[in-house]
Amino acid sequence: MRILGIDPGSRLTGYGLIEGRGNHLRHVDNGVIATSSKDPLPQRLKIIHDGVAALIEEFHPEAMAIESVFLAKNAQSALKLGHARASAIIAGVNAGLPVAEYSALQVKSAVVGYGKAAKSQVQQMVKTLLNLPEISQEDAADALAVAICHFHSRPLNNQLARLQAATGRRRETRR
């Protein structure tokens, strides 16, 4: 399964693509979609959307995972981050991809095993898990971590979907 991970930001949106087969992970690509703070917000959002859409078209992922908004310096920053997330999510949804959202705590737990791990620990584990010599951008490492989190969360997500489907069927038969 090929997964596109996104670490959203209004100036730098990190992306990471991994491929997983069985328990093995393989790095495909990573980087950032950069916007200029001189551009108005709508233009930056278009750049993010178009950048994610181009990645989807080039690499054909089967799923997209994105980090949830969890912390911002102020309300204005939180709004801009939310807009950046929405631009990336819309690109994924428009391409027909299932889009999963994970908190920073979930990502750190999945990658490091500890939800309050330092960024440096996450980066080191990403390098180790994907057998990379280095990751050039912090945002790209975070995006790869989101993709790894989704890969490791799939069995749980599948179990939850089956449980919800079974619960829904039982409700229908009671009517």
UniProtKB/TrEMBL annotation:
Its cofactor is Mg(2+). GO terms for molecular function: crossover junction DNA endonuclease activity; DNA binding; magnesium ion binding. GO terms for cellular component: cytoplasm; Holliday junction resolvase complex. Mg(2+) 1 binds at D7, D139. PROSITE patterns: RUVC. Pfam families: RuvC. Its EC number is 3.1.21.10. Keywords: Cytoplasm, DNA damage, DNA recombination, DNA repair, DNA-binding, Endonuclease, Hydrolase, Magnesium, Metal-binding, Nuclease. Binds 2 Mg(2+) ion per subunit. SUPFAM superfamilies: Ribonuclease H-like (SSF53098). It catalyses: Endonucleolytic cleavage at a junction such as a reciprocal single-stranded crossover between two homologous DNA duplexes (Holliday junction). Signal peptide: none annotated. The active site is at D7, E67, D139. It is found in: Cytoplasm. One of its GO terms (biological process) is DNA repair. This is Crossover junction endodeoxyribonuclease RuvC. It comes from Geothermobacter hydrogeniphilus.
